[in-house]
Amino acid sequence: WVYVKADESACFKWLKLGIILSIDGTVLFDIFLSLVDFAVYDEKKKLLTGQLRKYPEKLIIYCKDLRVFNFCLRYTKEEEVKRIVSGIIHHSQTPKLLKRLFLFSYASAAPNNTDGRNQTVMFDTLEDWRDELERTKGNVQYKAVSTNEGYKVSEKLPLYFVVPICVSEESILKYEGRGIPIWCWSCHNGAALLKMSAFPKEQDDSTSQMQKAFLDGIYRTIRKPPYELLKTDDLSSSLPSLQEIQTAYTRFKQLFLIDNSTDFWATDVKWFSLLESTNWLEIIRRVLKKAIEVVECLERQHTNVLLIEETATDLCCVISSLVQVMMDSYSRTKLGFQSLIQKEWVIGGHGFLDRCNHLHKSDKEEAPVFLLLLNCVWQLVQQYPSAFEFTETYLTVLSDSLYVPIFSTFFFNSQHQKDTTTTGEILKTQSSPFRFLTVWDWSVQFDLKAQAFLNNPLYAEKPKPEKSQRKTARFKHQRQLSLPLTQTKSSPKRGFFREETDHLIKNILGKRIGKFINSSDEPPNSFREFYDSWHSKPVDYHGLLLPRIDGPEIKVWAQRYLRWIPEAQLHGGGTIATAAKILDLMEEVQNLQVKMDEEHSQAVSGDTHAVPMLRNSARLSSLFPFALLQRQSIKPALPTSTWKDLEDEDDLVKRDDEFVDLSDML
C-alpha cells in the first residue's frame, strides 16, 4: 500500500496528465489518467462512482496496461481525497469531448527535439502508395487513386488508396466507396489480397439492382488470367463478433488484475479452467486459422482473396495484417511492421477512438481489435523469434502506447477526423498549427539504452546478393511446399463469374457469405494438407511463416499480462537470462571492435550504439525489464510513460488538472 501523506519528503501530485508519486525528488511511479480503467475502494472493493456517502480510506486503481495501485488515504486531508476521487471519476468514467484530450494541449506546445530518424512509411501521400505497389509488383493490375481528395467520396476512406485498374473514378464517387475492392497487398505470384465494405443490407429493389449490376461488372473485370477464381470471405460470419471479442478479453484481463498475493494463489489453483472459460486464446486460434486459410488461397491456389466486412476497418485489418506478416518478410522488420500498421490501421480507418473508448462515450463500441492483432503477432514472434527484427518487448510497449495521450497515432477514428478536428481547432483558437507526434518516433519515450530492448539481437537478417548476381537475380519464393504449386486450370466453358456472380452479389448485398466458395477441383481437407506440409519442412525465416495453432501451441503473452505480478516471475530464469548473455557477448564484440579501430587508426573511434548492461543475469527477473521485485517497490528498467520527454515542459507537466466537484456530477 502507498500511504498518501503530504510532507517535505513525499510528494503526491495530481496533474492534468496523470498522477506522480515521488520521494525526495525521485519519481517512484506515474499513472497516465488515460490509462485508468476503473477504481474500487474500501475493503469490499466497491466500484468508485459519483454516488459516494463518504470519502474512502483505501483506493485501488486498475490500469489498462494491467498495473494495479493501492493507496491508503486514511492520513490524507479531506480536501485532497476529494480532489483525487473526483479526478479519477472524471477521467475514467465521465464522457468528454475530443478536443479536451491532453493530446491537443501537448500538440500545441510539442517539442522540436525529436531525433527525426523515423523512416516509417506513413501512406499519407499518393507517392507512398505507388512505391508500395512497385515494391509488391502489384502495379500491373492495380492503381493508386486520389479520387477522395477533399473527402468528396467518403469521410471513412483515406485521401489516397489503391483499386483495380478496371474501377473508374465515377464508380467510386457514385457508391461512396462501398462495394469497391480496395487493394491491400500483392503476393509474389501475382495473386492479391483485397478488402471491401459491404453495401447496406436494407435497400429498395431499384437500388439493389443497380448495385448488383455494378458488382457484376467489378467481378468480371477483376479476373486476370491465370487467376480466374475470386474467393470471398465475409468475416462477420466466419469470425467472432466484436462483442464476443470484447466479452472474452474482459474476462481474460480479470485474471491478471491482481492486487495481493492471496488473490494470486487463489486463482492459481484453478488457473487452466479459468483461462479456458475466457475463450480469449480460442479467439486468437480462430483468427490465426483464418489468416492461414487466406494464405493458402494466395500461395497455393494462386487466387485473389476479397475480405468483406460492414466497414472493412476491424477484422479486415486484423486478417490482412496477419497475412502480410506471414508472407512478406519486410513486414517482419521493425520499419516494415510500423509501415504495415500505418497502411492497414491508421490510414485504413480503424476507429481507435471508439474501439479504445478514449472518450468514455459508449462501451458498446469498445473492442480490443488492435490488441487482438498484437496477441496474434506475438504468437508468431515467440514461435519464430529469429524471423523478426523486433522483440516481444517492442510489442508490449506498442500495446501500452495505445493509451499514451501525447501521440496522435491511436487517438482518431479516421484521417478525416484528424484533419478536420485539427483544422477546426486552429481556426477557432487562432493558434499555431498542432504538431502531433507519431508513436513510431521511439526517442520520445525511450533513450537509446531502453530502445535496444526493442531490437532482436538474434534476428536472421536477409543476406544481400552479390553485385554480380543483382542484375540476373529474380525474386523467387524461397519456401517450396511438398504439395505442387500447380496452376489452377482455366475452364472458359465453366464460366465461373457468369454462374456464380448472382449468388455472390445476393450475399454481398446483405445475406451471409459462406466461409469460402469452394472449387470442385479443391479437396475438402486441402487446408490441413497445406498446414501439415509446410510444418514438415525446415523454416525459411525470410519466406512464408505459418504459426502452429494446435492445442497448447497458443499461449498466454506472459510478458504483457504477468509483468506486474511479482509472484509470477522467475528469478534468474526465462528468456531474459538468454538475452542477457547475448547482449553481454554483443558488448564484448563492440569493445573488441573499438580496440581494433584504435590500433589501426591510433585514435578512439566515434560513438557506438549503446547496448543495455545486463550483468549478473541470474539476479534478473524473467519478466525484466517490466517486473518489480516486490509490489510497489522500485521503478522498472524500461520506462512506462513519457515523463522523460515532458521534464522540460513545465507549463504542461506542472499544470494542475481542472478540479471537478462531485456535487456537480450527481
Describe it.
- This protein has 666 residues and is an alpha+beta fold.
- It has a domain of 85 residues: PH-domain like, CATH 2.30.29.
- The chain is built from 24 helices and 14 strands.
- The longest helix is centred in the last third of the chain and has 27 residues.
Secondary-structure topology with pairs:
Layout: E1 2-3, E2 10-14, E3 18-23, E4 26-32, E5 36-41, E6 46-47, E7 58-63, E8 68-72, H1 78-92, H2 102-107, H3 126-135, E9 142-145, E10 161-164, H4 169-174, E11 182-186, E12 192-197, H5 205-222, E13 230-234, H6 235-238, H7 242-254, H8 261-269, H9 271-278, H10 280-299, E14 304-309, H11 315-327, H12 334-346, H13 352-355, H14 369-383, H15 392-400, H16 415-429, H17 448-451, H18 467-470, H19 496-508, H20 526-535, H21 558-562, H22 575-601, H23 643-646, H24 650-653
- Envelope shape: globular
DSSP summary: helix tally: 24
For the largest beta-sheet, the strand count, sense and barrel status come to: 5 strands, mixed
Report low-confidence residues grouped into runs of 5 or more. Answer: 5-12, 471-523, 604-611, 613-618, 641-666
Number of strands: 14
N-to-C span: 30 Å
Biggest sheet strand line-up: 1-8-7-5-6
The value of Rg in angstroms is 27 Å
The pLDDT mean sits at: 78
Assigned CATH class of the domain at 10-94 = Mainly Beta
Q: Assign a percent range to the helix content.
A: 25-40%
CATH architecture identity of the domain at 10-94: Roll
Coarse structural class: alpha+beta
Name the beta content range: 5-15%
At the third CATH level, what is the topology name of the domain at 10-94? PH-domain like
